[in-house]
Every structure is written in structure tokens, then in C-alpha cells.
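From the pipeline queue, job 12 of 40. The input is one protein chain; the requested action is below.

Action: predict structure.
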Amino acid sequence: MKKVLVISSSLRINSNSEALAEAFAKGAREAGHEVEVISLRNKTASFCRGCFVCQEKQRCVIRDDADVICQKALTSDVLVFATPIYYYEMSGQLKTLLDRLNPLFPSKYAFRDIYMLTAAAEDDEHVPQRAESGLQGWIDCFANARLAGTVFMGGVTDAGEGESHPALEQAYQRGKNA
């Protein structure tokens, strides 16, 4: 059994990227894993101050929801990041959270496998590449971690529009095999 932390960064209710997150979580639960899904919708995550105290203390000096999420990520075996694609990139909320996960860098983090789930109005396969590249840059700082897989739901604009999109099954299968 693995401990799986799924983070949905969309602020929109019934978002397509959150549907991907829920599908992944469902597959992981059915596989017998312990799963927690966190939505950033009602969370507070201040910007990183660049003070690097976290490198010494392994904890951020800013006490908000990002600090709590960081502590959960530390002990998770699998991390899953779901994001809408905004202007060919990950959401600002997700980027802010990744910056705030800096205390993990010098730690004895448990995670090995990291997944990225994306949704966008445009359907071309290149659409999520910059977001994936941004996450890969973060992953590259963690020698024991790897980008284990991605799922892209393209061609969806409105909330809930992807409810029958084939990417949901892909996310479910990724979760089942995590």
C-alpha cells in the first residue's frame, strides 16, 4: 500500500482538471492505496519569500495551507498534481505551491513517483508540454523522484465538459497502477 497525495490546483468548481484528479484518486483507492485529495480552491498559499530558512529548518516560516500541504507531501509515496492549462502553462496556484514545497529539497522525502494531470481548451498534443517541463524542472531537484506519467484532457473549456472524455479513464488507470 502506498500513500498517495493528489493536489488539484483549479479554483473552478467542477473543473475538468479536478475530474482528472478524482479519477486518478478513485483508481488508486481501488488498488488499495491510502489516498488524500487536496483542492487548492479554498486554501491559502503565500508566495515564497526566498529566505531559505526552510533549507536549514526543513519547514517554511510562513504558516499557511502550503506549509501543511508540504508536510503531507514529505511522507507521501506518490504525488499527483492536477492543473488547468493557462496560456500553455500550469496554473499560478500550482507554481506558487511548488515554490513553497522548497522545504522538501534537503529532507528525507518519501515520494518517488510524480504524476501530472492537465486539462485545456485547446486539443493539440503539444499544449501541456510547457507545464510538464515546469514540473520536470521541479522534479529534477529531487534525485529519488521521477515523472512517472502524465494525462492530458484537451478540447474542454466549460466546467464539467470533460465528464465523458477518454482522459478520465487514462487517469483512473494511472491511479490504479500507481
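Job complete. The domain at 3-34+74-176 is CATH 3.40.50.360 (Rossmann fold).
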